[in-house]
Amino acid sequence: xxxxxxxxxxKYKILVVGTGLAGASAAASLGELGYNVExxxxxxxxxxxxxxxxxxxxxxxxxxxxxxxxxxRLYYDTIKGGDxxxxxxxxWRLAQVSNGIIDQCVAQGVPFARDYAGYLDNRSFGGAQVxxxxxxxxxxxxxxxxxxxxxxxxxxxxxxxxxxxxxxxxDLVLIDGEAKGITIRDLxxxxxxxxxxxxxxxxxxxxxxxxxxSTNARGCSATAxxxxxxxGAFFANPCFTQIHPTCIPQAGDYQSxxxxxxxxxxxxxxxxxPKNKGDKRAPDEIPEADRDYYLERKYPSFGNLAPRDISSRxxxxxxxxxRGVGPGGRGVFLDFRDxxxxxxxxVIRERYGNLFEMYERITGENAYKxxxxxxxxxxxxxxxxxxxxNLMSNIPGLFVLGEANFSxxxxxxxxxxxxxxxxxxxxxxxxxxxxxxxASTKPGKAKEDDAECKKxxxxxxAHVKKLLSIxxxxxxxxxxRKLGNVTWNNIGMARSKESLTEALAKIPEIREEFWENLKxxxxxxxxxxxxxxxxxxxxxxxxxxxxCRDALDRDESxxxxxxxxxxxxxxxxxxxxxxxxxxxxxxxxxxxxxPELHKEPLEFNLIKPAVRSYK
Length: 615
Ligand SMILES: Cc1cc2nc3c(=O)[nH]c(=O)nc-3n(C[C@H](O)[C@H](O)[C@H](O)COP(=O)(O)OP(=O)(O)OC[C@H]3O[C@@H](n4cnc5c(N)ncnc54)[C@H](O)[C@@H]3O)c2cc1C
Description:
Layout: H1 6-9, E1 13-17, H2 21-33, E2 36-40, E3 58-59, H3 71-81, H4 88-108, E4 133-134, H5 140-158, E5 161-164, E6 167-175, E7 178-186, E8 192-196, E9 199-202, H6 223-230, E10 235-236, E11 241-247, E12 270-274, E13 291-292, H7 294-298, H8 308-320, E14 332-335, H9 337-343, H10 345-363, E15 372-381, E16 384-385, E17 398-400, H11 418-439, H12 451-469, H13 476-491, H14 497-517, H15 529-553, H16 577-580, E18 582-587, E19 596-601
Parallel strand pairs: 1-2, 1-9, 2-5, 9-17
Antiparallel strand pairs: 3-4, 6-7, 7-8, 10-16, 10-18, 11-15, 12-13, 12-14, 14-15, 18-19
Flavin-adenine dinucleotide binds at residues 17-23, 40-43, 49-51, 53-58, 140-141, 168-169, 203-206, 215-216, 220-221, 223-224, 260, 262, 379-380, 402-404, 416-419, 422.
């Protein structure tokens, strides 16, 4: 691999969009190496990126508990967890660098939980039979982001990184076919301008908000990667979306999001529903003989720590069968009674105290005294922009990191692996892999007065004006709810040819109505959240059509992509390796023209694809 000479690094400018774990770690590492970095986020502080919300933990193959973990096992669990739909080489590298992440974060002062002897403690997450998850109570993302943010702040002080908060990327600028700039809107003044650089890194998170009521913050959007797709970047596996089994159930029609109850709770909580349909007794009145611990019954080897896709479908199945609990019967119990009896309330409080507190604040119920009620909700995007092994998209100079790319999780992500991926990409992969591209390009090639920059500014201004000019009756939030209901009902936990065909008819209708009847108040030259939301909403509407098309095209079940037509006799996902063992990478061909499907075949050299079983 080519390198950039240390004294030449300062001549290159790298634009990093996003300050979550992937973006903050990348910007800090590249700044430390001596590159000139400009860093962007739409929040008022990089520290508010959505990574802050991550609760449960981060995986690494340290094998501290001496329970048989290794790089090979982490690699194996991740490939199997993704139902053999991820790229092997990328997963192997992720497992290899996982241990370095923990060392890096400890050196930064991240306060990981420790055992009595002072060693770093571990717990288990779904899809693994070892304890490899490092954690800081239920605030792991927050503590890791504070670490990355400190590293970033150090570089800001040293002037290697220039920070632009409250700034939203609304277009990617290509010069001679290479990514050389971004067009942004200043969310405070409304100014629209271009930033040019020698490479662009998108670290802009996932698109789970395409479904109604996800666990993501309201601001999380597909806008940055969608704009890049429209400029030619391939979108890979958009239909691979994760539904998380343990969220606080919906309480009303006008809720804006759902709250996650971390998967870590399944270490000590047991999931069950009443055995008999319509059993309305209070949980403590239901005797052991009338309870169905369905995950323990169906998956004895992994029990309550079965992977998310499998646990979510099992919860839906129990509720569809009329055995759900709580309002509307859309809930299952997560019960700590036995572990409190075994370990004591103090131990449970020490491990999960903030999660119990959050649950009580939202539901008014004390989960030390009665079981939590949980239900699946949209949570994570395994799909994202296509990248090669160097994390570069098919557009030279455009790199994609963290949840925004498709690289390692295949058709289902295992718990505690997203934080690992974001920090692997930012601290350990991109500092090496950006160099070969930069070494092959002359620094400072792009100028702000290039025709492409001017055109991009004009295009963005015209788009913003169009959003403001419709003056209809329906707000962006209402359009988002409408879209999110279609995606949740038709492309959610279960998908069929019929439901997908129906969605493919409904989504364009929503798009048409959007352009006819959108209402955005205010003007463009001020803080205008409705305008921001309008832009994100139309991108989600357009993206949802691609997601749906991909789900229809992938005529198999795998991981979280569950096509009801393709099930094993016991109801598990039935893969079709002969016809679908590939990454689906979609290329934009123009509005109103079907996208082009490119296929990257998947090869497995270390293990052979097998039927994924957690029984
Ligand atoms: C509630 C919750 C709990 C979770 N818990 C865990 C866990 O315990 N373990 C685990 O491994 N994973 C967990 N995850 C998943 C994990 O948190 C995320 O996948 C990960 O943090 C994403 O990091 P990121 O850096 O890729 O993106 P993010 O943290 O989402 O950051 C995106 C950044 O991009 C910026 N951005 C986006 N679009 C634009 C734009 N157009 N212009 C400018 N800036 C833009 C944002 O401002 C932000 O700075 C959890 C997720 C949720 C929702």
